[in-house]
Amino acid sequence: MNAVIARLQAERAAQVEFIDQLLSKVESDERDLVDAETSNLSAARERIAALDAQLAPLVEFEELRADSSATMTRAIGGATTSPRSAAPNAPAADGPVYRTAGEFVLDHLRAKGGAPHLGIPADAGAAERLERAARAVAKQTTAETPGILPEPIVGQVVNLIDTNRPLLTSLGIKPLGGIPGKSFSRPKITQHTTVGKQTAEKTEIPSQALKIDPIDFTKETYGGCVNVSRQDIDWSAPGVWDILISDLANIYGKTTESVAATAFGTGVTQTVAAADDTLKGWSAALYGAAATAYAGAGELPDRIWCSVDMWAAMGSVTDAARLSFGNTPAGSGDLSRFSGDVLALPRVVVPGLAEKSVIVGSSSMFEFYEQVIGLLSAVEPSLLGVEVAYGGYVSYGFLEAKAFCKVTPPAAKPDSAPSK
Fold first, then answer.
1. Helices (H), ranges, 236-385
2. Nearest residue to 106 (alpha-carbon basis) of 93, 119, 94, 95
3. Which residues does UniProt call coiled coil (predicted)?
C-alpha cells in the first residue's frame, strides 16, 4: 500500500476511535457534552473531512495502477522459458549467474545424469557450477537494508491520564458564563426569625430579625499553551495537532478537578474517628459523621467522598462481609470500578483528595462554577508556527462547611475478617 495512503488512513481511524471513546464516556456518565468535549468533537469531524479529501484522489490513482499492472501481466503471461534452455551464462568471478529458476533446475538435472526422455543431456560441469553457486550465495538480513525498513506506529498514542472529574460530576458544574465581574456572591441566611410561646395575653411575642449575608466567590483563570511548528503538524502521523488539543483539554479538566478537590478536602474541619478497621467500627463512624453533618446544615448527607487509599480500605472491609454473609449488608463495589455505595449512600472516589480522606456530606453545600474558553490559536507566519492555548474560568466554595464531616481512619490496616 502507498505509504501516504496508509498514514492518512491510520490517522482517520484514530480520529474515529477518539470520537467513539468521547461519546462512550459521555454516555456512561449519563450527561450532556461539556463545551470542551463539543469543541474536540467538532475538531475531529473537521479533520476527518480533510483526510477524506486527501485520500480520494490517492486511492483512485492506486486502483488505476493496479488495473494497469494486471493488464500487463496477462499480456506477457504466455512467454515461458524452454525446458531445454542452454547452460547459464558464463560464470562470473564469484560464481555462475542463473538468469531464471528454470536454469537452476536444469543444472540440477544435468548434474544427476540428465533426463534423456526430455532431451536434457548429462553435464559433468553442472555439479561444479552448483557447488560454486552455493559458495557464492551471500546472506541477506535486515542489518544490510536499514534504509528501506519502515518504522510503523501502531494504534493510538498511549495516554496515562484519568480524564474523569468525579468530584465535579458529583457536585454538578454550574455555568459561570454571563456572570460579570471578577467576583460574585451567593446570599445565605445567617440569622433566622424566631417563634415562641406567648407567656400571657397581650404580652409581646418573641421577635428576631432575619439576616442575609453574602458568600463571596472569586473567579480564577486556568489554561495552558504550546507553540508548535507547522512541520510537526504536517509531517506527524498520527497527527500531533489533534493529540495536542485533546491533551490540553484533558490537562485543563484534570487540573481544575484537582484544585477543587484540594479546596474541598482542606475546607472540611469537622471530624469523627473510626474506632477500629472492622465493619462495626466503620459503620459507627460513618453514621456519626452523617449525624454531625446534619446538625451543621439541617440536611442529611447524600454522598461519601473518599481518596483512593480509603476506597481500598473500606472496600476490603465491606467485601469481606459480603463474602462471609453471602450478601451485601454494608455496601457494593468491586476492584474493577470506583462506583458503588457504602451503607446505601453513593460513594465517590476522588483521586485528587489527600490520602486518608473520607468525607460525608450534602453535595448541594459546595458549589463549582465554570466557563470553558476552549481553544485559542494564533498563526506565526514568519516562524511557520502556530501557538495554541486552551483554558477556562472557574469559581468554587462552600455554602456551609459544617454540612460535611470527615471520618478519621484508625491507624491499623484493614482486618480481613468483618466484625459481626
1. 240-267, 279-297, 308-325
2. 119
3. 19-54
Taking a C-beta distance cutoff of 8 angstroms, is the pair 71, 82 a contact? no
* Residues 176 and 218 sit within 8 Å (Cβ to Cβ): no
Domain 166-408 CATH class label: alpha beta
Please report where in the chains the cell 473567579 appears, as a residue: 219
Res. 22: pLDDT tops 90: no
- One-letter amino acid at 375 equals L
Please classify residue 253 by burial: count the beta carbons closer than 10 Å to its beta carbon, then call 0-12 exposed, 13-18 middle and 19+ buried: buried
Cell of 317: 472491609
Q: What are phi and psi of 139, to 5 degrees?
A: -80, 125
Q: Considering the chain, what percentage of its residues have pLDDT values greater than 70?
A: 77
- Is the pTM higher than 0.70? The answer reads no
What are the phi and psi torsion angles at 197 (to 5°)? -80, 140
User: Does residue 351 surpass a pLDDT of 90?
Assistant: yes
CA 302, distance to chain mean position in Å, is: 29
Q: Tell me how many degrees the CA angle 201-206-211 measures, rounded to the nearest 5.
A: 155
Q: How far lies 234's CA from each of 15, 43, 76, 249, 264, in Å?
A: 16, 16, 42, 21, 43
Domain locations along the chain: 3-72, 81-150, 166-408
The secondary structure of 114-147 as a DSSP string is -BGGGTB---HHHHHHHHHHHHHPPP--GGG-GG
Peptide bond into 152 cis (omega under 30): no
Give the bridge partners for 180, in sequence order. Answer: none
Closest-CA residue to 399 (of 371, 373, 361)? 361
**Average pLDDT across the chain, whole number:** 81
Q: Cα dist. 107→1, 5, 85, 202 in Å?
A: 38, 45, 10, 134
